[in-house]
Amino acid sequence: MATQTYNSPIFVPRIAGSVTAFFANVAHAFAMATGAQARFDEIQRLQALSDDDLARIGLSRDDIVRHVYADLLTR
After folding, report:
1. Does residue 5 lie within any of the structural domains?
2. Burial of 71 (0-12, 13-18, 19+ CB in 10 A)
3. Is 60 strand, coil or helix?
4. Distance, CA of 44 to CA of 73 (rounded, Å)
């Protein structure tokens, strides 16, 4: 009588989890970079305004970075 055994590939779920985690980290890094670029662009846009224009929207030059990152600073 012949016996055949099948080795269960227990490493497959581990590899699948690692691949999933890798792509999740890549997506997170991309989102962070996109957000950083958008904040940088907003700072540049506000810096290009005159002091009078900034005053009209209730900002001073010293407040620009604080204003752009306000959602992160108030956590």
Report:
1. no
2. exposed
3. coil
4. 19
